[in-house]
Write a structure and sequence with these properties.
The chain is mostly helical. The chain has 20 helices and eight strands. Residues 348-499 form the RagB/SusD domain.
């Protein structure tokens, strides 16, 4: 019974989407919440298996709009590429197969009928509704679980973190502004029995995100996860820091400083080393350092990620396929993704991160161990979702916002000492110049990891495309322009009568 139920739960996740009509898809294949709850009483690992199904959705191919099987649709890392391209820090080197062409031309952010606008919406609502399903099975998301019932607290803690994760990315991708405003942006669903819901305000969405993450941090205290694919207390704190920074009040930034300091000091994650940052060569064709490539979840600085194995069944349709020259797929076959020339030119010559790129290609940042062109057919290199270096730069950003500039510089210096030969220039920075430097270093450090878009919106920045963009080269776009966020997709408007 346990095995068959877990298979059913896992397959259900790939069928669930937002809206009442989507929730009724193949209802005979879904166990009821009562069935799951009863099974969980007999064997608590059943509920843990359900949570694992949520995590599997994060890297599954066609997890956004499965019926069309687009090759840019593969969970969180797929939408990391969307965000890097929207922010313009990533550029298409050429377009032979056409993936992402509507994204980079900003057609997808201006036309609600295009599937690119639908994929993130359906993916993140799948995560949200799956998290609601898990919480409904143990009494609902509003119950207060006593401290002694650790198993239930761990289930709800992870589910609430994942629900908040879904709403956070939706709020980024489908709203032009962060904050506490009254713009109506998203429907909120907090259980699986709700009918179609109207749009809630930015404030209501962020209030739910932050409340969920605060509970997650509390409930996951003491949780010893079995792998980095799961959310623990420190990952939940990291998500909470991102959400608070996005809302961006002074009180929020103070909390971001406190949360990120806790992660850096107590999480047990050392910073990504200089050796791990870029391939190092000594006259031969292969790197002399064996710890580079951003390909191994065992890397100590990684806080959250996916351990990709042959059983994950990933090949052409994967992040590695779209980004990595050494994987048999689009990046090497004619659709390369390269760094924006304007950003590359801002990286100092003595910065190890300059060496990550060759002719704009990130072949010395992201690579397989064999480094043979188009060698990796079945994906075995891992996915990264969060690393501690993000928390260091968020800490610097937070301290700069609250006026604690010495602390901001200290955090920034702790990372850049591992990237640059000389960081004495940092001591001269203050005010907006310091904030600008933190933003620049965030863009450089996390190129290709899906973080530049979030930083662009936090910093209310304007992006200008470099000369190597195929489309709209030299043009500038403000963070809250129509080009920078998706419209609510046509399918949602058609199926949800609560949305005008």
């Amino acid at each position: 019974m346990k095995k068959s139920l877990n298979i059913l739960l896992g397959s259900m996740l790939l069928l669930t989407s937002c809206g009442k009509d989507f929730l009724n898809t193949l209802p005979s294949e879904k166990p009821s919440t009562d069935q799951v709850s009863d099974a969980g009483k007999d064997d608590p690992s059943v509920l843990n298996g359900y949570i694992l199904g949520i995590y599997a959705t994060m890297y599954s191919a066609f997890s956004g709009v499965p019926e069309i099987e687009d090759h840019d649709d593969f969970g969180q890392k797929g939408f990391d590429v969307y965000m890097d391209l929207l922010s313009s820090d990533m550029a298409l080197g050429s377009v032979n197969y056409g993936w992402y062409s509507d994204v980079v031309r900003y057609n997808s952010t201006r036309d609600y009928t295009l599937k690119d606008a639908e994929k993130p919406w359906r993916y993140y609502y799948k995560i949200i509704m799956a998290a609601n399903y898990a919480m409904d099975a143990v009494g609902g998301s509003e119950i207060e679980v006593p401290a002694e019932d650790k198993e239930t607290r761990y289930v709800i803690g992870q589910a609430k973190a994942m629900r908040a994760y879904g709403y956070f990315y939706l709020a980024n991708l489908y709203s032009p502004e962060y904050g506490t405003g009254n713009d109506k942006i998203l429907p909120i669903y907090t259980n699986t029995q709700q009918p179609n819901q109207p749009l809630s305000t930015t404030k209501e969405v962020y209030d739910l995100i932050i409340s969920d993450l605060e509970t997650a941090v509390e409930y996951l205290d003491g949780y010893a996860r079995s792998g980095k694919h799961k959310v623990n207390k420190y990952v939940a704190e990291g998500l909470l820091a991102y959400a608070l920074g996005a809302r961006g009040t002074q009180a929020d930034w103070q909390r971001v400083a406190t949360l990120t300091e806790d992660i850096v000091k107590n999480g047990g994650f050392p910073l990504t080393t200089k050796s791990q940052t870029a391939a190092v060569f000594n006259g031969g064709p292969m790197p002399v350092n064996t710890d580079g490539g951003f390909n191994n979840i065992a890397t100590a600085s990684w806080m959250w990620g996916a351990d990709i194995t042959l059983a994950s069944n990933l090949d052409l349709v994967s992040w590695w396929g779209q980004i990595d020259y050494f994987t048999y797929s689009y990046a090497a076959a004619g659709d390369p993704k390269v760094i924006d020339k304007g950003l590359f030119d801002k990286i100092p010559a003595n910065d190890v991160r300059k060496k990550q790129f060759s002719s704009g290609l990130p072949i010395n940042k992201f690579y397989t161990l064999k480094r043979e062109p188009m060698e990796q057919r079945q994906i075995e290199t891992d996915y990264i979702y969060m690393r501690v270096d993000e928390m260091v730069l968020l800490n610097a950003e937070a301290n700069a916002h609250i006026g604690n500039e010495p602390a901001a510089i200290a955090s920034l210096k702790s990372l850049l000492d591992l990237r640059l030969d000389n960081t004495t220039y940092l001591s001269s920075l203050s005010g907006q110049a310091l904030k600008d430097e933190i933003y620049l270093q965030t863009r450089i450090e996390f190129w290709g990891e899906g973080k530049s878009y979030l930083a662009m919106k936090r910093n209310k920045a304007t992006v200008t495309r470099g000369s190597n963009h195929l489309y709209l080269a030299g043009q500038s776009f403000k963070y809250n322009s129509d080009e920078m966020s998706f419209p609510i997709p046509q399918v949602e408007i058609q199926n949800n009568p609560q949305i005008d």
